[in-house]
Specification:
By secondary structure, the protein is mainly α. It has two helices and no strands. The protein is elongated and about 65 Å long.
């Protein structure tokens, strides 16, 4: 599977779980963001920071991390060359098949 497809498939696989958790947390912070009463300034300050931070973390986790993975893998292949990547894959496959032998 090509690298871009793998990153997209991984992001799609985790999207629902991450978004459900994030939205539950973000909606739980809404009362702090719209707080009224005696301590509204401190509650709004904390609520707004946590609210915005969770939105930013959700965006980073779903969109930015897979994109950075693709970019860094592309750079690694470019620096080390495709031959090194293919050789490492072949070496790993040979090591796995050799480990299946019984030891006497």
């Amino acid at each position: 599977m090509p690298l871009g497809e793998a990153a997209t498939a991984g992001a799609r696989l985790r999207f629902r779980a991450v978004m459900m958790t994030s939205f539950a947390f973000i909606l739980g912070m809404v009362p702090l963001v719209i707080a009224e009463g005696a301590s509204k300034l401190s509650r709004r300050g904390v609520g707004t920071g946590v609210f915005a931070g969770m939105i930013a973390a959700s965006v980073v986790g779903i969109f930015l991390i897979p994109m950075l993975y693709v970019v860094f893998e592309w750079l690694r292949e470019r620096v080390h060359g495709r031959a090194a990547t293919q050789q490492a894959a072949q070496t790993g496959a040979a090591a796995r098949s050799g480990s299946a032998q019984t030891w006497r």
